[in-house]
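[Help] Beginner question about ligand-bound structures

Sorry if this is basic. My supervisor gave me a protein sequence and a SMILES string for pyridoxal-5'-phosphate and asked me to "get the holo structure". I don't really know what that means in practice or what format the answer should be in. Inputs are pasted below exactly as I got them.
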Amino acid sequence: MDYFAYKNNKLYCEDVDLQDIAMQYGTPCYVYSKKTLERHVDVYKKAFKSKDNLICFSVKSLSNISILEFINKKGCGFDVVSGGELKRVLHVGADPKKIIFSGVGKSYDEILLGIQNNILSFNIESEAEVYRIEEIASSKNKVVDIAIRFNPEVDSGGHEYIKTGRKGDKFGISSDDSVLKIANHIYQSKNLNLVGLACHIGSQILDLESYRLTAQNIKKLSINIKKIGHDLDFLDLGGGLGIPYENDKTPSPEELISIIEQELEDIDERIVLEPGRSISGNAGILLTTVEYIKENFLIVDAAMNDLLRPALYKAKHDVWNLKEMESIDQVWTIVGPVCESSDVIAREHSINANEGDVLAIKTAGAYGFVMSSNYNSRVRPAEVMVDGKTFNVIRSRESFNDLIKNEINLND
Ligand SMILES: Cc1ncc(COP(=O)(O)O)c(C=O)c1O
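Answer (accepted):
No worries, everyone starts somewhere. Holo just means with the ligand present. The predicted complex, written as structure tokens, is below.
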């Protein structure tokens, strides 16, 4: 459910005519609906019957500081995967005790930053990482809270590039024996404290049975870990819930949480979830203008550098004309200006459009702007937030100076 809809034949975001945003800020331009974000956060929060839980918004899906500040005010924690993301959430005043740091390759400096800020947990993904955190903790005379991210060996379905919990994937610790060995080591350590067990099986997951299996696996493993003597604070089932990109039926957060609560009914630990896409995905669209029409192509001003998902994952996005049409009788392949054959926004898409029309690429809030680049020396687009009748730019369109500001001309 989102707040992008036609009123009087014009596409609105909440109470704002999207054409007004295109006129004021130009295209391509990301537009986010605050009300949609709020609704998604509230759905997650209200779905829990158990009181003890924590929603850690996955910052990698959408990381603009205005968005993070809003999500922070809504009481969520954050799942971060880099020092940059950690600095972003600290910048907006996040409570460190609601920050989880995931990722297979945390650097020395990133670990130090997390330790200095007393975050809730480092979700560790290898034995080597445990030793590195222990060494840094010992050198700073600290006791550091960590959770073990294990690999539950569950195939979550969907695109190869977004599955993370199968045997052979680079994420998490693969065998129960290795997890228990690490848990034993942590138990002996003066500088480490095991606070949780974590996993994340993938993204755009449509089959809730893979979550049921994962919940069963995490419960079993946590019981064995507690036998060592650990007293865990949380079990973290990651993010990954799928969303409708093309009007498809997707499971709701309520259904997901109900399955998890059923499976973990008799455990004492808090439940942590790390949703990204299901909060930010359909809270955002990308506005783009049709520049040219050629053969069966609509050539638009947004490209793979603005929205990489179609080129990277063959991901599908619905595309709407801001002017509502009575009937649609045209089929176009919508492409961007970048010099790559993969720069296709949508193939054989039913839409009526003319040169100069502004289109909305839907469900672009998650893994949209955050994956943008300057490829072909294109400036990154503006980001705008709508709140009821008002809208504000939350990131300006880049300029030529932004493009070259870190470059050094050796002849100058
Ligand atoms: C560890 C971790 N947690 C949470 C997420 C968020 O996933 P999603 O945006 O699909 O909810 C990801 C994304 O891949 C992840 O790697």
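A couple of things worth pointing out: The first helix runs from residue 18 to 25. The chain has two domains: 4-32+281-404, 103-273. Feel free to follow up in the thread.
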